[in-house]
Design a protein that fits this description.
The complex is a heterodimer of chains A (223) and B (114). By secondary structure, chain A is mostly helical. Chain A is built from nine helices and no strands. The two termini of chain A are 24 Å apart. Classes of the chains: A mainly alpha (223), B alpha+beta (114).
Chain lengths: 223, 114
């Protein structure tokens, strides 16, 4: 006999409360297993309370289930890493390389036509906009983060912040050596506009890969 | 069979067991896999949930398994099935394990006098 909605909710609460299961996908899978085990015990004549206790024990108890969750996190993060690598590799196909090179040539011709201040402002906004988009996405999806999306953000925090921090450090590093450090960086970027453009393109590319990664959510496929 | 020995022996071959079971069936869910192993081995071999789900998730991450969810008795049930790569990989891993077991058997059957 299938369990009632109330009984299923009780099992769900056990998994959340006693084993701290926080991912929807894993929770659904474990609820099904826990419920099937409970149903089997109930067929043998046990009450729901008694049957669910035995089922909980067979599932491995709190520690056993927490171990499943830790392993699940590792597995999803591995999938995210592989997926991110695939996205980044996809940018290095011949059509993309050719079109990026052509774009660079176009920028090389156009950049000297603008004033250094305008180039610097453009660099600033081009780097800032994708980052702002990511931050917007982070806050927009804050309610949905009790799923694998949460792990994608964790990956983003670990990996995505590295180049951003390096960029920040490189911009401010000169402050440590000179009172006029930020001016040196500014002059450098103005003198070498191609470097500014390259930084922009790389930041855009890296941010885009994360935006793409975030939309590749690791959802269940409903049959 | 001693449970702790059983589980340590199972550890290395669990992924092959899962791939072999899914080779014959269109799709299976976690509980079904544990029961099928119990049934095939007349209760001698028991897969714990703590070992089964990490193994399933690992195979899924490797791209050997694909999943789909159906609503059964008011709850979501996740079914696993082999991908194309999974089918190829299953055949290879099964052949590898069979060869290993054959060799192991030869060693175990060796008489002390030989």
């Amino acid at each position: 006999m299938p369990l009632s909605t109330k009984q299923l909710t009780a099992l769900r609460h056990d998994l959340i409360g006693l084993a701290s299961i926080q991912y929807d996908d894993l929770l659904a899978e474990l609820v099904d297993h826990y419920a099937t085990l409970t149903e089997q015990k109930m067929v043998a004549g046990q009450s729901f309370d008694e049957a669910s206790k035995w089922a909980w024990f067979e599932l491995g108890g709190g520690i056993g289930i927490e171990h499943i969750q830790k392993d699940y996190e590792k597995s999803i993060l591995r999938q995210v890493r592989i997926q991110h690598r695939t996205i980044l590799k996809s940018y290095f196909r011949w059509p993309y390389i050719v079109s990026t090179t052509l774009l660079c040539i176009l920028l090389f011709v156009l950049v000297p036509l603008f004033s250094p201040d305008r180039v610097l402002t453009s660099v600033f906004y081009l780097v800032l906009v994708p980052l702002l988009l990511l931050v917007w996405g982070y806050f927009k999806s804050i309610d949905q983060r009790i799923s694998t999306g949460k792990l994608v953000w964790q990956y983003f925090q670990n990996q995505g912040m590295i180049p951003i921090n390096l960029f920040q450090i490189s911009l401010h590093l000169t402050n440590g050596f000179s009172e006029n450090g930020s001016q040196i960086v500014r002059d450098f970027l103005q003198t070498y506009p191609m470097l500014s453009v390259l930084i922009c393109l790389l930041t855009l590319l890296y941010s885009l890969s994360f935006i793409q990664l975030f939309y590749k959510k690791f959802y269940y496929k409903l049959a | 069979m001693n449970t702790s020995n059983n589980s340590s022996l199972l550890k290395g071959s669990l992924s092959v067991i899962i791939l072999r079971l899914l080779e014959d069936r269109d799709k299976m869910y976690g509980y079904e896999i544990t029961q099928k192993v119990k049934e095939l081995t007349a209760g001698e071999m028991a897969i714990t949930e703590g070992a089964l789900y990490p193994a399933l998730h690992k195979l899924e991450a490797e791209g050997l398994l694909t999943t789909e969810t159906q609503i059964v008795d008011g709850r979501a049930r996740k079914y696993y099935s082999l991908t194309k790569t999974g089918h190829t990989e299953a055949a290879g891993r099964i052949a590898e394990l069979t060869a290993f077991l054959d060799n192991l058997n030869l060693v175990l059957k060796l008489k002390p006098s030989l």
